Amino acid sequence: MRKLTSFVCGTGAGFAAYYLQRLRDPQAAVHNSWTNSDKPVDPWALWDTNWDCREPRALVRPLRNSQPEEENRYNAELEKAKAKKARHIILVRHGEYLDVGDSDDTHHLTDRGRKQAEFTGKRLSELGIKWDKIVASTMVRAQETSDIILKQIEFEKEKVVNCAFLREGAPIPPQPPVGHWKPEASFLRDGSRIEAAFRRYFHRAYPDQEKESYTLIVGHGNVIRYFVCRALQFPAEGWLRISINHASITWLTISPSGNVSIKYLGDSGFMPPELLTNRIPRDVKNVV
């Protein structure tokens, strides 16, 4: 446990250092080519090609000289380090649950939450995806959502990876600040863990991957919203500005070049209107 804590804290510190470096980088001062403004573009507008530390040029030993043999060596290693196929990461938020009791063990899906998960499972089945990997948060509501989805798609339950890094939490203080919600202690406790989960699951394909891959992650609203901001290289502090429905589908694609695009963001259009929810019901009266 002590080693894991050190790793997670180190990850968070590295993330903070990365932000500071981006803000101080003099090369970030480019200009708006689409306006007459002389003001530099915000550093966040520049795409970091080595965001996942898998840019081939960062993995290959630099040229030592200009000799043909050395150039051939460099080009061969560079080609060998390149990803060839895309990775598709599909994120599903858990279904609606009732927040009663003092522990996660009592936070079960509502009847409506189970129906939401059933519709999501059917939708994923209709997409005809052959899953390479399925990962689920270890929290009860995510586990129950995953179990319902598994009944609709072709994947062995025994192969599902249960990951505690994906548990719900507060990833980073939001901007603009929210006056009624200030879990300062939660940011310190959860932020590094959630960032570590991002680094674990979001990266371009390995060079030996010979076909496009599909990973399904069943998790939580805050975590998914943070992942979206990080993957698209939007300011991570903006995660709370995004709203996604229960059991909705978010689809991100990481190309071999490392570019990231979003196909779905909180898609729940496959559900009937009476099943669309995004907040936790506060009492049993509001549960379907």
Automatic annotation (TrEMBL):
Corresponding gene?
Answer: Dyak\GE16503
What Enzyme Commission number(s) does the record list for this chain? 3.1.3.16
Q: What is its main location?
A: mitochondrion
According to the record's subunit comment, the protein's assembly and interactions are:
Interacts with Pk92B/ASK1.
Give the UniProt keywords, A-Z. Hydrolase, Membrane, Mitochondrion, Mitochondrion outer membrane
- Annotated binding of substrate, by residue: 141
Signal peptide boundaries:
none
User: Tell me, what's a Pfam family for it?
Assistant: His_Phos_1
Task: Identify the species of origin.
Answer: Drosophila yakuba (Fruit fly)
Q: Please report the name of this protein according to its UniProt entry.
A: Serine/threonine-protein phosphatase PGAM5, mitochondrial
